[in-house]
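Figure caption, in words: inputs first, then the predicted bound structure.
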Amino acid sequence: MYPKPFDYVMPATLDEAIQKLQQDKAMALAGGSGLVPAMSLGRAAPALLVDLRQLADLAGLAPRPEGGWRIGALTTYATLATSQTLQENYPALAEAIQGLSDPAVRNRATLGGALAEAHPASDVAAAVLALKATLQVRGPAGARAIPAAEFFTGPGQTALKAAEIIYAVDLPAAGKASAYEKFKNPASGYALCGVAVCLEKAGGKIVGAQVALTGAADYPQRLADVEAALVGQVPTAARVSVAAAQIGAARLNFVTDLAASAAYRAHLAEVLVKRALARVA
Ligand SMILES: Cc1cc2nc3c(=O)[nH]c(=O)nc-3n(C[C@H](O)[C@H](O)[C@H](O)COP(=O)(O)OP(=O)(O)OC[C@H]3O[C@@H](n4cnc5c(N)ncnc54)[C@H](O)[C@@H]3O)c2cc1C
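Bound structure (flavin-adenine dinucleotide present):
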């Protein structure tokens, strides 16, 4: 199939991009690795493509004065996959990207594009949830910060409002004790189940825990009951097993499709939570 006819602009500033995005059926274009195939398949039919790639300020990593790092929304997976900063400070995000797709996709796909796309099996979605990232967005009403935990609101849905652009993703200082575990669909390479974890420890006990799931349920989300079973505890193998058993299969909407049943995905979730926690506990 071919895309429906559309207009195309490449704004020089973020303000201009926001203004263009207020036109009827306008859509942002970043790497195009998700949007262009969607247009070819008729799943997206923008009347205007607003190409963000000239906004050079939106690419790259920089330390934040208050601690942690800021990643520009246009930073590609290829850049992130080879980033020493990411590998040393945020292993969960580095691992989520390293195992993802092929060089052609990694050279084009951007962090902001992936988060805005909000694929139910997005690897980076789980990582930013576990790392307690904050998405910085700007739109017609100005700038606002959206905690990752509030960003994914349903299958393919986000908290982004019309004409809002993600311009950066902020990561807090604590992220070293993090990991990502993925069980791939052998056909597509997407996660049948992916789990990202991040722990903070003090005095031999867990004082902060974020555990996030992707691919297995209807959208990427944190596992509050697993987290609650970890905080205040000594991170032993037995405690990790008890916590992993709290994935809340009854409360989560695990997916059944051609690739796997909901019951199998729930089983994978528990196994991967244990594996990821064992690496950081
Ligand atoms: C062959 C293939 C295999 C893949 N495998 C995996 C996989 O294993 N795991 C995985 O997680 N993903 C996978 N992906 C998905 C890929 O990671 C995403 O499609 C990609 O990251 C989207 O980023 P992009 O920059 O190309 O966004 P685009 O395709 O340009 O845009 C995607 C969507 O986000 C919007 N958008 C883009 N940038 C912004 C912004 N800054 N602010 C607001 N809205 C914006 C666009 O309007 C569009 O709706 C795969 C994709 C392909 C093509």
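Residues 27-35, 37, 52, 73, 100-101, 105, 108-110, 112-114, 116-117, 119, 122-123, 165-166, 189-190 surround flavin-adenine dinucleotide (CB under 6 Å).
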